[in-house]
Amino acid sequence: MVMPPPPPRPRRSLYQAPPPRRRRAPCVVAAVVLVAVLAVGGVAGYRVVGFLQSVLNGANPAQILQQQLDPPAGSIAYKIKHGQHINVLALGYGGAENDAPYLTDSIMAVSIDPVSKRVVEISVPRDLYVRINAWQDNRVYTEKVNAAFEVPNMPRSFGPGPLKPAYTGKDGPGHLAEATVAGMTGLSFDRYMAVDFKAFRSVVDALGGIQVHMDGPLDDCHYPDYHNGYLNHGVPLGYRCPAGAGIHFPAGTYSVNGEQALEIARSRDAIEPDQATDFGRAKRQQMIISGIKARAVSVNGLARAPQLLDAVQADLRTDMDVNDLTALYNLLGRLPESSIQHFAITDQNLVVDVNGTGGDCGGPRGVFVLCPVDATYHMWQSVFGQVPLPTTTLAEKAPIQLVNASRNTVDLQQRATDTLRQMGLQLNDGVRHSTLLQTTIVDYSGGKYPQTAAWLKDFFGASVVPAASAGVTPAPGEQTDGLVVVMGSDFARRWTGLA
After folding, report:
1. Are 130 and 264 in a shared domain?
2. Does pLDDT of 237 surpass 60?
3. Could you list the residue range(s) of the whole structural domain that residue 426 is in?
C-alpha cells in the first residue's frame, strides 16, 4: 500500500531560534485598543460605519446606542458595569511582510479586575510546545503555541480534514488561539485582538511619531529584514555590529517613527546584556506603549483620528464591538503604570528550556522549544486563577522567603520565588534545606501579616505555625522574620504536576 505524502509544513519564521535561556516579553498591541477607540470617536459618521463593518462587529448606530445604555449580558461593557473579571487575548503577528505571516510573535493574556481597576499582562512564550485541537475528527496537532493563530489561516498546511466550526470564518484564528492559551492558563477569554507589524508602524506614523527615552544604547546585529533574512551581513551572534549592520539606537530622549518604534520593541538579540533579556525588552515595550498613549490622548493625537482609523482598519482583527472598546477605554485609558502588573512566563519560573532535545512535551530535536514544568498545567491554573491578588494581601508587604526542603526538585526555590514575585508579593531570595520536610509556613512575625499568611496557606495547602512551636531548624541563609514557607516534597509534586 502506498501511503500519501505528508501535508506540507507551514513556513517557519527564520527569526525564531534564540540562544539558550533567552526569554520573551510582553507585546505592544495593548496600545492599539486606545488608538481604535480614539479613531471611532473622532471621525465623521461614514468613516465610523466603514470601520465598524470592516473591523468591529456591528454597524447600526441605534443598536450601538441602545447597548451603551443597556449592555447585553456577557459583553465587556456588562461585565465592567457589574464588576466581573475580564480576560482579553492580545496577539501580535508578522503579517504579509513576514516570511511566516500568521505566526504570533507576541502572545499576551490581559486579565482585568474592574473593581480594583488593576490589570495583569501575562506574556506567554511563543516557543512553548503545545497540543492544538482544531479539527472535527479531534485530531491533535503538536506545535509551538504561536501556530494556533496560523492553523485556521493556513489549514491546508496542517493536513486534511475540516476544522471545528468555532475556528472558521473571520474570527476563527483568534478563537483557536484563545482556546489553546485557555487550556494552559485556565483563563476564559471574553475577546481577542490581533494586530500585525504594519498596523503598529502605521499607528506610530499616523501620530506623527512618539518620544522614547533610552536608558542605554541598543545595538542588534540580528534584527530581521523583510526578505527572510537579517540586517547583519553575516555578523555572528554576540559580536559588535560594524557600520551598516543591524539596528542602532543611542541612549537619550528623542522622537522615533513607526519603523524605529517597531525595531526598539521587537529587538531580541542586542549585544548589550541588559537589552537582550526579557526584562530589558519588556521595559522598552512598556516605554513604547506609554509613548503611544501619551501622544494619542494629546490634542495633536485627537486631531489625527482619521489617520489613526486608516492605520488600523486593514490590519487589525478582533471580535470586539465598539461598545467593548469604549468600555475598556473608559475603564483603563488613563490608568497609571502602577495599576498594570506584568507577568512573563519564562524559563526562570513555569517553563523549562529543553536545549534542543524536544523534551517531555514532544518537541522536535534540534529546535528551540520550551516545555511546561507541570505538564498538566494545574500549577499554571492555580497561579493565574489568583491574579491579581487581593489588595489587602499586597498592602501588607510581608517579607516572605521560600525554602526548598523537597527531594530532587533542586531549583524549586528559585522558580517559585520568581513566580510569586511576579504575582506582586515581596520575596527575598530562596534557599535550600538539607532536611526533607512537609510543607509548613513558619510565622516569625507574631501574626503581623494575617492576610498574607492566609493567602500562602491556601496557595501552598499548608499550615501556618508560630516560629516558637514550628520545630524547624533554619537552613543557612534562611530569614528569621516575616513569613517563611518551607516547601516539602508534597508541594514539589504539585509544582511538577505529579500530585
Report:
1. yes
2. no
3. 393-495
Q: Which whole-number Å values give the CA distances from 477 to 364, 440, 468, 480, 497, in the listed order?
A: 41, 18, 19, 9, 28
Residue 279: pLDDT band (50, 70, 90) is: low
- Report d(CA 179, CA 171) in Å as an integer: 12
The closest of 166, 172, 161 to 137, measured between CA atoms, is: 161
135 and 76 inside one domain:
yes
Q: Is 166 a domain residue?
A: yes
As a whole number, mean pLDDT of residues 74-86 equals 92
pLDDT band, residue 228 (cuts 50/70/90)? low
Average pLDDT value for residue range 388-413: 95
CA distance 299 to 1: 71
> What is the chain's mean pLDDT, rounded?
82
Helix axes 30-42, 305-313, angle to 10 degrees: 120
Instruction: Give the mean model confidence (pLDDT) for residues 101-126.
Output: 90
Q: Quick check: 498 pLDDT over 80? A: yes
Band of pLDDT at residue 499, cut at 50, 70 and 90: confident
> What's the average model confidence in pLDDT over 1-9?
43
What residues does 224 pair with on adjacent strands? 230
Q: Is residue 476 situated within a structural domain?
A: yes
Q: Is residue 386 part of a domain?
A: no
pTM for the model: 0.83
Joined together, the cell numbers standing for residue 194 give 490581533
Same domain, 314 and 439: no
**Cis preceding linkage at 388, omega within 30:** yes
Q: Are residues 332 and 437 in the same domain?
A: no
Q: Angle 391-396-398 (CA atoms, 0-180°, nearest 5)? A: 125
Q: Which three cell numbers stand for residue 419?
A: 513566580
Are 93 and 317 contacting, i.e. CB atoms less than 8 angstroms apart? Answer: no
Lookup result for grid cell 480594583: 116
What is the number of structural domains in the chain? Answer: 2
What are 405-446's pLDDT values in tens digits?
Answer: 998 888 999 999 999 999 999 999 999 998 877 899 999 999
Q: How far is CA 56 from CA 48, 82, 198, in A?
A: 10, 23, 19
Residue 305 pLDDT greater than 70, yes or no:
no
CA-wise closest residue to 321 among 72, 45, 67, 56: 56
